[in-house]
Amino acid sequence: MKNISMISRNNLMVFSFILATACNNKNSTDLKTENKSTMEAIKLEHTTLINSFEVPAGKLEESIKYWEACRDFLKVQQGYVSTKLHQSLKDDARFQLVNVAIWETPQAFLDASEKMSKELGVPPVEGLKPNPSLYTMIRE
Fold first, then answer.
1. Sign of CA dihedral 91, 124, 108, 77
2. CA distance to 37, 40, 95, per residue, from 23 (Å)
3. Mean local confidence (pLDDT), 64-69
4. Confidence of residue 55 (pLDDT cuts 50, 70, 90)
5. How crowded is the C-beta side of 128, counted as CA atoms within 13 Å?
6. Which of 16, 21, 42, 51 could covalently link to 99 via disulfide, CB atoms 3.0 to 4.6 Å apart?
């Protein structure tokens, strides 16, 4: 997996997590085989983006419209699977909006985000603070 770095003018940092396999008295050959299988399985899994937004007072609707513009741009990019925006039921929640998106790979998300930062043409909402991270499922 390539290093993940700053991806847009909004200083969005993206972090990905890699699953580690625990040792349970197996010899090193067994562990190498198991680790390889685990990593191959992870490559087949989609990547989940969870982006929690701190929304400035009075800017909720403007923030939702900005999210919609970003969604419309990203949903036609290679590797996009789906996205859903959630709103807190508490008016005073730190994160009023949470976006959960599915991408085929971390790199697909990074490439699309970089392209969006250059081509979207819609200015970000003043004071809107995104907190994005990429995740992979490790338990069901």
1. positive
2. 15, 18, 38
3. 98
4. very high
5. 25
6. 51
